[in-house]
């Protein structure tokens, strides 16, 4: 198996930026950078307008940053799977259900929880990464879906 476009330097820089952003959010807001929890806080009732504002700004920053990356550095972005909108919607809903069941997402457990040496986060990361590996293997090698 050949890994195309393996770029450890850009991966290291990206990981450093994600970790720095999570640390800065904790430092200045005292909040964990769990995207599902931040998004849930936008949709639920926030205690103050300031609370809702920083959450919306954070999510918009993710969207604008992703859009800018695709526009200005398209070679550095991920390949697109050949999935139809219904498959993408089902996948998104399953991710939402999974983050609700696991009380957090990859950013909350994987970045922040592991950095805090949380046993619950270690169990969550081990579970969702293992299920992700098995799902990707089954989809690509058994069912032939999403071949690059």
Automatic annotation (TrEMBL):
Its name, as the record gives it, is: Uncharacterized protein
Q: Which InterPro entries match?
A: Sulf_transp_TsuA/YedE (IPR007272)
Q: Return the PANTHER family for the record.
A: INNER MEMBRANE PROTEIN YEDE, SULPHUR TRANSPORT DOMAIN-CONTAINING PROTEIN
Protein location: Cell inner membrane
Membrane topology type: Multi-pass membrane protein
Which keywords appear in this protein's UniProt record, sorted alphabetically? Cell inner membrane, Cell membrane, Membrane, Transmembrane, Transmembrane helix, Transport
Primary localization class, coarse:
membrane
Pfam families the record matches: Sulf_transp
Organism annotation: bacterium (Candidatus Blackallbacteria) CG17_big_fil_post_rev_8_21_14_2_50_48_46
Residues passing through the membrane, by range? 12-32, 53-73, 85-102, 122-143
**Cellular component, GO annotation:** plasma membrane
Q: Which family does it belong to?
A: Belongs to the TsuA/YedE (TC 9.B.102) family.
